[in-house]
Amino acid sequence: MEHDDYTAPEISNHVQSWIEYAEKVRQWYFNSFLLHGEPDLSKKSVHFEPYDCSCNYRGVVRMTLYFLNGIPTIQEVEVMHCSCNPLVKQLLENHMMPNKTKSPRRAVYFALLDYLHVFKMRGLPSLSSRTALMTNDVLNSIYFLYRKLVRYAQDHVNSSYGLESMSVCLGCEGGKRKLVSMDGNFQMKRRKTAGRNEASEGGFFALSIGEQALCGTKEEVDKFATVKKDQNDNCFLDPVEDSVFKANDENSRNNSTGRYDENGIFSLSWARHGVPERMLNIYDGEGHMLKQQKEEGVRYGIMYHIICLVRENLEHTFTHLMMNDTWYGVTAIHAYAHTMACQVNYNP
């Protein structure tokens, strides 16, 4: 959600250089697979082939390269570069993601970054023990740039072959009942300086096609801006009404400091496999998320940790939920905070 009192900072030279190099970087990324195939996670070094050219200027740079090979591994290597064979080109075409486009000194192997991404997204463990040889600055900055590059390249492939970005679960699509899970965090804080308007950066740093399809627009968010919860909701959650489970109370937000930019995010996901379908940057309105669901003939199963608060409101607003025998459930980990009656009625 945009804030009127916030002015996005100017784009830094570092970011601007990636935007300027975007198309070349993408092509060098594609070349790496044509030249060397898929990255090998067991690899622990890269050999840069010597070359001859007629460039007037040649330089040699000492690089620190990071691999995994069972345990984090470092290679110190000198790389020759010139105008026709720039350093960034050589690194990317050898499956190495540099930390900068201009005068990089560190690079991380693609396979290590892919491994960390899968490990982080699926296992959600701490990565500190596996990246002890890399400082947070190296890992976080290069990982962020690499994921931007991968999505930028994927968009190009999808556009070239006419492929559409899907926000459905292929394992559940077309089933007799659509099982969805809803959840929100309405007190997400970040430093205001982190709120750069990425749309103005364009290209390499712009939202990918998949991200744009997943995230709600400002126009959608504005529809919910003045929505208030129904005070007559049939709620069994009285004992914990003032606890941390009071997720839909917009008055719980604390805007006492000007140092932070507070956001709220609400998501609708396919429940069985956790595939996200829709996300909104919004402060409240979880009881109205299904306004985005146009399939009135679909039979739903809705899981939400305070479904007892919003069920009556949902069925009043969307009568087809009552008519189509909708299932309701409270997530197991939250059920213990509810009363016994609620646990019986909404046992997942």
UniProtKB/TrEMBL annotation:
TM region(s), chain numbering: none
Domain CxC2-like cysteine cluster KDZ transposase-associated stretches: 49-123
PANTHER family reported in the protein's UniProt record: CXC1-LIKE CYSTEINE CLUSTER ASSOCIATED WITH KDZ TRANSPOSASES DOMAIN-CONTAINING PROTEIN, CXC2 DOMAIN-CONTAINING PROTEIN
Name of the featured protein: CxC2-like cysteine cluster KDZ transposase-associated domain-containing protein
Organism of this sequence: Choanephora cucurbitarum
Origin organism lineage: Eukaryota, Fungi, Fungi incertae sedis, Mucoromycota, Mucoromycotina
